[in-house]
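One-letter codes give the sequence; the fold follows as tokens. Both lines appear below.
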Amino acid sequence: MPTSPRNPVYHTSTHKFKYTIHLRGVFTMKKINSKKLARIFIAMIVISVLAFAFASFSFAEGEAAPAAASDGGLGLGLIAAALSTGIAGIGAGIAVGAGAPAAIGALTEDAKTFGKALIFVVLGEGIALYGMLISILILNKI
């Protein structure tokens, strides 16, 4: 088979060629750049917060809805409660996603490390619980 600049390696056997195509298809997939993903995520959060803020200000300016003007802080309080729970949940997912596989690996090597491994997983879950506690406190204030 001829070689090309894009795929310089070809196998002559049909059996190997199928696996080569399969592996090239798996390994040549585009990977998401983590910096680009973080920028997109932060931009989405900023746009969401600004949209909710401007929506609450537009209700406060209108004369047709005087009740909405008095409850302008209610919407922002609900947004704060939702963000505290959501961002804490994302942080807990990242922490547990990094800690749980390491804990499982440590447990497969030595079963005596269960207590130490459990502490790291529980610390990651604690982040979500603290976020939920903060959102409950915010909801009790408003």
